[in-house]
Amino acid sequence: MLKFLKGVVAGSGTGLKDLPYNIGDPYPSAWGSWSHFRGTSKDDGSPVSIFSLTGSNPQDGHLAAGRNGVKRLRTVRHPNILSFLHSTEVESFDGPSPKVIIYIVTEPVMPLLEKIKELGLEGTQRDEYYAWGLHQVAKAVSFLNNDCKLVHGNVCMSSVVVTQTLDWKLHAFDVLSEFDGANATATGPMLQYEWLVGLQYKPMELAKSDWATIRKSPPWAIDSWGLGCLIYEIFSGMKLGNTEELRSTASIPKSLLPDYQRLLSSMPSRRLNTSKLIENSEYFQNKLVDTIHFMEILSLKDSVEKDTFFRKLPNLAEQLPRQIVLKKLLPLLASSLEFGSAAATALTALLKMGSWLSPEEFSLKVLPTVVKLFASNDRAVRVALLQHIDQYGESLSAQIVDEQVYPHVATGFADTSAFLRELTLKAMLILAPKLSQRTLSGSLLKYLSKLQVDEEPAIRTNTTILLGNIASYLNEGTRKRVLINAFTVRALRDTFSPARGAGVMALCATSSYYDMTEIATRILPNIVVLVIDPDSDVRSKAFQAVDQFLQIAKQYNEKSNAGDTADAGSLGISSMPGNAGLLGWAMSSLTLKGKASDQAPVATVNSVMPASTSSPGLIETPSTASAHRVNSSTDFADQPMPPSPTSTDGWGEIENGIHEEQDSDKDGWDDIEPLDEPKPSPVLANIQAAQKRPVSQPVSQPKPQASTSLRAKSTVKVAKDEDDDLWGSIAALPPKSASKPLNVKAAGAVNDDDDPWAAIAAPPPTTKAKPLSAGRGRGTKAAAPRLGAQRINRTSSTGM
Prior knowledge:
The protein is of the alpha+beta class. It has 28 helices and 10 strands.
């Protein structure tokens, strides 16, 4: 009964049941009498490390030293000293006698010896990692000895642990004590718990308990010896058995050997200070140490240094130990990008390092940083994100894209930089499949409607390409309303020849979305015009498109004759190679840079797509086929700009308030009504109109135009009413003047048709001749005689 009451009292307040952590599996080794366990937090499941020390009675010396270690670990804080989280002391009554257990909870760590075995590094990479770890431990020892005037007393492999980011940290503070070298009268032991230190780790003066010599020695004398023991253990790969083993230097690197020997000097006063070791040792000057050190003080570097460093980092990361890069450099890089201390060029290195992770780790360690960067106002960061979106876009979830990424990316559609607008278009190839129908129809299509009349011809071309690629993600109603208008009314009438070619290819790639009526009345009439296009590449694409749509018409006719009306209305060829090839073609157009021209293709080799031999009339687009490669990243200021398509396609009424009308269901193509089916047919209408025109005189034939091109130059304004009649560009030209009546002209009038000089003749007089009677009214005077020829109206028979 008494034992039960004691258990209840001991378990209340600070008992093990109240410890907010779960104790897991133990590690095979730990320092001294301590045990090292894996653990997790009961609140959020985050990993921790739990150290426990058991004593047989409250007066056990190990418990007293353990309480000293808990106190020191709680009060001493340094980046290279183990981080303290929680501690408690529990009394247990499991056995015949009560036991006292001390628990310390720290950040998750692993014994150094176990981590070295797990990494399995060799050669240069092993030496670089050891150099980095020893550098961290040396900084911790220097902090204790030089700044705090404390003596650790037992620096060795067991007193060093490794974090999840592969940092080495010092712990095991049970022996830690103040250095009282200034107290010359003191005679007792300076280290109260020095008996916990193994004899093999004790320098000569400590082994002899020569406290007078110890007090006269520098504060770092004991711990410099311990650091030498640590160096021997990590390079030999085994724990130190006795002091004599320290004389074996075969495994010590040549660049570290002089410092190693000075650390283990037999004279305490001549031992190397750890601070001098950090500053002067040649061994610590390697790529890994320099890279991590630069990242840790990144906020102190100027922009030029940052830019130079991050441009070299992707190649440098390949030469460093892969585990250190992923567990140490990658978190540092992500943190610096997230908080703005890193340059935009750091994103390239981040994504390259992230490509070495598994998909699950990439989503946890890289994607959150990337998503946060989309909210940045730095244009360089936005450009870097869009340029590399193919490396992480597939890993983004649809919800994150629709709610967090797209609202920030969409600002690039209206950016003043043409290069950023084009990169935004390219990003939509990857992001569009993850957007909701509301975002596609209510927002994205509005922006694309604006970009299809952009001042940059390359952007207009790429907008058409993008529409062809994302057509499959639009609903049927939106496709009916948008695609034909975008490809025929705008793309096929663009002054930029690659834009017209893109419109033809987009129509071919989306042929499965059009019914036979649309093909016959709205698509074929617009494509046929392009078979006499000034550009040979456009003509080639137009001929292939005509063949493809005529093949569809033939299939429709055959099925209609056979009575199969169920399938006759949907004859689009969805499996044509062109549908698959358009994406690759679009990417090449978007990524390759070139000087755009308003009238000539940019590429030196035109992409002529051969017709498929297996299916006559279909277009086959090989993935390796060359295409017009247009890019707006170059400066177009030195070239004449084409007239704005809004002046030629009649789409000038498109709403301007994109940002104010995001909730509208309109997409920018609603103001263009589909072309009504002509009644009668366009050919018959032109014939009837020609019959109704008055017959002009043969002698007054209007002079033919100098050019028969269907596309005016970029400096010539297209006729305003051209879009009102799709056939206006190829119809017979009307006479310039109306036919003259056949009535007889007045006598004395000159016939303009008979007189070739009529165009330059002097105009007839507009005033009447004055009467010859001279009055004598006020102010009137006789006309003074005039010199030279005078016009006199006479009626003589000679006609003069």
